[in-house]
């Protein structure tokens, strides 16, 4: 069984309070136009007209060569963490990159694949049969942006 995991609340609250992102900059504040702004904390789309943060995030515990950094969106106001065993609402595109990482936070080569959205859960479960895979990332198939993490439940 798998669990979709959002960015940890303590990290999100720091960003929402104006704390520096992975580039050392304050998050940009915008207003959502609706539809295309997936919050990586509540794992829902930021509603139209709601405050929106745009920032650089590194979903790894420390910088290292495999610790990808990239842009993400978050709700500007505090939101409740999403997650669970069901496919999150933010995964609304036709396909995503699903890739395994080891306990050393490095890519497990050969695990990455563009995966149809409806097959993400099965793909992640299959990746966890490989003892080298400690967790999985779901990333945009077009821009490689981090969407969420998947852990063993």
Structural class designation: mainly beta
Number of strands: 8
Biggest beta sheet attributes: 5 strands, antiparallel
Range of strand content: 25-35%
The end-to-end distance, rounded to whole angstroms, is: 5 Å
Oligomer: single chain
Q: What topology, given as strand order, has the largest sheet?
A: 1-8-7-5-6
Number of domains: 2
What overall geometry do the principal axes of the alpha carbons give? globular
Q: Which percent range fits the helix content? A: 10-25%
* Unreliable stretches covering 5 or more consecutive residues: none
> What is the residue-averaged pLDDT?
97
Number of helices: 2
Radius of gyration: 15 Å
Encode the helix/strand succession as letters. Answer: EHEEEEEHEE
InterPro entries: DUF1203
Protein name: DUF1203 domain-containing protein
Pfam family, one: DUF1203
Notable characteristics:
mainly beta; five-stranded antiparallel β-sheet; 153 residues; globular
Question: What's the quick description here?
Answer:
The chain has 2 helices and 8 strands. The chain has 153 residues and is mainly beta.
Task: Chart the SSEs and their pairings.
Blueprint: E1 2-5, H1 9-16, E2 28-31, E3 51-57, E4 70-75, E5 95-101, E6 113-116, H2 120-127, E7 135-140, E8 146-152
Antiparallel strand pairs: 1-8, 2-3, 3-4, 5-6, 5-7, 7-8
InterPro entries: DUF1203
Organism: Tabrizicola oligotrophica
Protein name: DUF1203 domain-containing protein
Structure description:
The chain has two domains: 74 residues, no CATH class; 58 residues, no CATH class. The radius of gyration is 15 Å and the shape is globular. The protein is built from two helices and eight strands, in the order βαβββββαββ. It is 10% helix and 29% strand. The model has no long low-confidence stretch (mean pLDDT 97). It has 153 residues and is mainly beta. It starts with a strand and ends with a strand. InterPro entries: DUF1203. Pfam families: DUF1203. This is DUF1203 domain-containing protein.
């Amino acid at each position: 069984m798998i669990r979709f995991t959002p960015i940890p609340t303590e990290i999100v609250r720091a960003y929402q309070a104006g704390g520096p992102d992975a580039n050392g900059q304050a998050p940009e504040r915008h207003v959502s136009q609706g539809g295309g702004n997936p919050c990586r904390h509540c794992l829902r789309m930021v509603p139209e007209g709601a405050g929106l943060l745009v920032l650089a995030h590194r979903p790894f515990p420390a910088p290292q060569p495999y610790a990808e950094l990239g842009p993400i969106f978050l709700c500007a106001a505090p939101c409740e963490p999403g997650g669970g065993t069901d496919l999150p609402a933010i995964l609304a595109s036709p396909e995503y990159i699903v890739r395994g990482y080891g306990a050393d936070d490095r890519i497990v080569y050969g695990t990455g694949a563009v995966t149809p959205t409806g097959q993400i859960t099965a793909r992640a479960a299959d990746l966890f049969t490989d003892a080298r895979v400690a967790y999985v990332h779901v990333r945009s198939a077009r821009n490689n942006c981090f969407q969420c993490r998947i852990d063993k439940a």
